[in-house]
């Protein structure tokens, strides 16, 4: 028994040394980084790729929970052809473009202004920073209901102030007016989301070397010249990433519009994400909702690629 145990031990050492020698050989090749990344790649495939592929597959199926008699078979491009004849889809597409572009533009401008001011480290800097970031800390449900009360057509403080100042003759139902519902929702979302830009842009400003500011001061540059020639070019990468991330968030999240207007009045605030949500959880037409989601995915990928190319953020120096 003792001899057999020694033989097994000796055999185990030989296998271990053989494995280590092969591993040492692989570590000197290009395959080594991929081997180290394999667990992360498998996790990404499980968490990201599989659900995405399932959603795309769903868009080609018949999936209506309130009509189990229809089955769950493949229907090809039926949902996409139906989408081309759906007037609500075109209204939602137009509103989505206005919603995302306008909100991101306002948030970027407000965030840039807040970041530049905070970068000056004025007195009460920390207090001002907390106040600026406060809207971002509020859950979107809380922020939406707060603004719904502030803009209420009967009890709203903003309506009362505007009437007392003579700007309005009477209280205005902002979210019940098709001409004002989407602009007001954009302003509420911009108020809630601009600290996201302010935080990222402020971090980018803190990374600019002080030597550049000192050289600009020697050349007699004022605040505008410093912003235009030093700060703005240095923030290209940060702005590009922030805009893309925020656009993705806005296009995929109908929660604020759902709280404020529910897509109305009429279809004036209907966006693609809200339309897909309604198709899935009101009409239980998950196949059509999946097709809408695939269209949103393609629009986001194409828009992000085009924006990155236009800004030149990924160009080599």
Task: Summarize this structure as a short list of keywords or feature phrases.
317 residues; MetI-like fold
Question: What can you see in these coordinates?
Answer:
- This protein is mainly alpha-helical.
- It has 2 domains: 2-48, no CATH class; 80-311, MetI-like fold (Orthogonal Bundle), CATH 1.10.3720.
- 73% of the residues lie in helices and 0% in strands.
- The protein is built from 14 helices and no strands.
- The protein has helices spanning 2-27, 31-58, 78-84, 87-119, 125-137, 140-150, 157-164, 181-206, 210-218, 223-234, 236-252, 255-260, 272-281, 286-311.
- The protein is flat, with a radius of gyration of 28 Å.
- The mean pLDDT is 86.
Secondary structure: number of strands: 0
CA radius of gyration: 28 Å
Tell me what portion of residues adopts beta-strand conformation: under 5%
Distance between the ends: 70 Å
Helix content: over 70%
- The CATH topology label of the largest domain is MetI-like fold
Which CATH architecture of the largest domain would you pick? Answer: Orthogonal Bundle
Class by SSE composition: mainly alpha
Helical segment count: 14
| Order of SSEs | HHHHHHHHHHHHHH
Which overall shape is indicated by the principal axes computed on the Cα atoms?
flat
Number of domains: 2
Assigned CATH superfamily of the largest domain: MetI-like
Give the C-level CATH assignment of the largest domain.
Mainly Alpha
Unreliably modeled segments: none
Largest sheet: none
What is the average per-residue confidence, as pLDDT, rounded to a whole number? 86
């Amino acid at each position: 028994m003792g001899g057999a145990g020694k033989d097994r031990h000796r055999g185990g050492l030989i296998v271990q040394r053989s494995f280590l020698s092969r591993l040492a050989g692989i570590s000197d090749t290009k395959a080594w980084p991929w081997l180290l990344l394999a667990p992360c790649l498998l996790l990404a495939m499980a968490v990201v790729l599989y659900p995405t592929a399932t959603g795309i597959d769903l868009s080609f199926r018949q999936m209506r929970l309130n009509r189990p008699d229809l089955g769950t078979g493949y229907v090809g491009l039926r949902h996409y052809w139906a989408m081309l004849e759906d007037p609500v889809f075109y209204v939602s597409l137009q509103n989505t473009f206005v919603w995302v572009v306008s909100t991101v533009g306002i948030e970027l401008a407000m965030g840039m202004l807040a970041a530049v001011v905070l970068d000056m480290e004025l007195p009460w800097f920390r207090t001002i920073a907390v106040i600026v970031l406060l809207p971002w800390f509020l859950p979107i449900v809380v922020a939406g209901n707060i603004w719904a009360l502030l803009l209420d057509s009967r009890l709203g403080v903003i309506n009362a102030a505007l009437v007392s100042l003579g700007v309005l003759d009477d209280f205005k139902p902002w979210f019940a007016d098709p001409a004002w519902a989407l602009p007001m929702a954009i302003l509420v979302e911009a108020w809630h989301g601009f600290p996201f830009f302010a935080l990222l842009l402020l971090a980018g400003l803190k990374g600019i070397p002080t030597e550049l500011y000192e050289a600009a001061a020697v050349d007699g540059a004022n605040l505008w010249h410093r912003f235009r020639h030093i700060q703005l070019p240095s923030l290209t990468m940060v702005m590009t990433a922030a805009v893309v991330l925020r656009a993705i968030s806005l296009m995929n999240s109908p929660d604020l519009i759902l709280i404020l207007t529910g897509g109305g009045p009429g279809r004036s605030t209907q966006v693609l994400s809200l339309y897909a949500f309604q198709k899935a959880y009101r009409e239980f037409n998950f196949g059509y909702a999946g097709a809408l989601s695939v269209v949103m995915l393609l629009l986001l990928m194409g828009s992000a690629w085009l924006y990155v190319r236009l800004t030149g953020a990924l160009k080599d120096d």
